[in-house]
Design brief:
alpha+beta, 452 residues, four-stranded mixed β-sheet
Length: 452
């Protein structure tokens, strides 16, 4: 017995076959990522467990979410102080970002038939900059200052690119205050010429916080204000010093000459909770046609859900002093506002995609109606099912980033220093021992602590 091809099969049958092919494409574009396993381990304070869950779930990310896997590998390795592995993932992610920057026409066409989850994930602008911030800190921990400054320059290039896209005088993510501040600290530990680069980055951080206040309601840290005065005084910029003092008042600081020659500095970054996660919010609009049949016009838009903060208050205890942490980066607010700024364009694309699917469904139904019988019912049910099921917003994001990042900075005598944190969580005071650090004169030492 042999099977024969029927090139002249009814058009309706061909349309229904296409419909089921699209349903298959839909299934391939809606992979379930292993977020729950990874995040549950992190929230329990089990970083090694989170890394193990990530490794076992690598295939679940798939090719289209490869960048997201590399993002998570970078951050989880960073939390585990596995700087080399974090940097390896970072380098692969950076290469992939450049490769994905120009999306192929075929991929765009597929996303128009299904949803944006069928496209390769390219990352949010702030995520791509945070990749380089983690790189700066990784290389600093390894004592590789030159490589850390390479990451600082990479962050600068991305920010210049985003600023050019947003346009002068318009709101939108185009600067990153934390990236500028960390870069300034790194440059500060270099040559005398590097001091001018450090001062420039401190000033860029100052400008970035003006933008942050407008977009995210993030206040300018007092520590940054003191650093500006310290540098203006140390570099002999008298006009600048007077300007900063008129704006912020006279702030206390250890002179730049002492922090470079006689004293050491400890910069503690406190990672507070996890970044927000995206959900898909569907708008299903019933439409009654002229023939009396009901159809569905479905549109899906992404929205960020912010998790409850983990650390409302914290202090650094070192060298006999208690130094309050200040909020330097609110990734929660940045993510929400950045999505809000892009929502109009996302809505236009979602509407056009929904209309295309609606019109395609009507065409399938019209041809199936000519065939009559079960074919018409199958086409009607199938097209409505596909329209409802296929419309999903892209809910991928770098969820293992910190939700907020706090910084406390202390000038200390060289030698061994015991470092502790006093944290107020759930109206209970906790004392966390970060161990003992050995500091050298002129050194800038970063210490990282994550609380979930």
């Amino acid at each position: 017995m042999s099977l024969k091809c029927h090139p002249s099969r009814p058009p309706a049958l061909a349309q229904v076959a296409l419909l089921f092919a699209l349903l298959g494409l839909l299934a391939s574009g809606c992979a379930v990522l292993p977020y729950a396993k990874v995040e549950n381990a992190l929230l329990a304070g089990n970083v090694d467990g989170a890394r193990s869950a990530l490794a076992s779930g690598e295939k679940e990310y798939g090719k289209k979410s490869r960048l997201l896997y590399l993002f998570d590998k970078t951050s989880l390795s960073h939390y585990a102080s596995d700087w080399e592995t974090s940097n390896q993932a970072l380098e692969e992610a950076n290469t992939l970002i450049d490769e994905l920057y120009t999306t192929s026409i075929s991929s765009e066409a597929a996303s128009f038939l299904v949803n944006d989850m069928s496209l390769p994930y390219v990352g949010e602008n702030f995520e791509r900059v945070m990749l380089h911030v983690l790189g700066m800190l990784n290389y600093a921990a390894l004592g590789q200052k030159d490589n850390a400054l390479v990451e600082a320059r990479r962050a600068d290039e991305r920010l210049k690119e985003y600023a050019a896209k947003v346009g002068e005088g318009k709101v939108g993510y185009r600067e990153d205050a934390l990236a500028r501040y960390v870069s300034a600290v790194l440059y500060e530990g270099g040559s005398k010429q590097d001091l001018w680069d450090a001062y420039l980055d401190y000033k860029k951080a100052d400008e970035a916080y003006d933008l942050y206040a407008q977009l995210y309601s993030t206040a300018k840290p007092t520590r940054l204000k003191a650093d500006l005065q310290r540098f203006a005084e140390g570099l002999g910029e008298r006009e600048d010093l007077e300007k900063w003092r008129q704006r912020d008042g006279v702030l206390p600081f250890v002179p730049l000459s002492q922090t470079r020659r006689d004293q050491a500095e400890l910069v503690v970054l406190l990672y507070d909770g996890l970044a927000p996660f995206k959900v898909s919010k569907n708008l299903n609009l019933p439409v009654t046609l002229a023939d009396g049949t009901a159809q569905y016009f479905t549109m899906a838009l992404p929205a960020f859900i912010v998790r409850a903060p983990s650390v409302p208050q914290a202090q650094l205890l070192v060298g006999g002093e208690s130094i309050p942490f200040e909020l330097f980066q609110d990734i929660n607010s940045i993510a929400v506002r950045d999505l809000q700024d892009r929502l109009a364009l996302i809505t236009v694309k979602a509407t056009a995609r929904a209309l295309t699917k609606f019109q395609a469904a009507r065409a399938v139904q019209a041809q199936a109606r000519e065939a009559g019988g079960a074919m018409e019912v199958l086409a009607f049910l199938g097209t409505n099912l596909y329209t409802l099921a296929s419309e999903q917003a892209d809910v991928r994001s770098w969820r293992t980033l910190p939700g907020r990042i706090w910084i406390a900075r202390s000038t200390l005598d060289p030698g061994k220093q015991a470092v502790k944190l006093k944290v107020d969580r759930d109206s209970k005071e906790e004392l966390l021992d970060l161990g003992t650090v050995k500091l050298k004169a002129g050194q800038k030492r970063f210490v990282l602590k994550a609380l979930y």
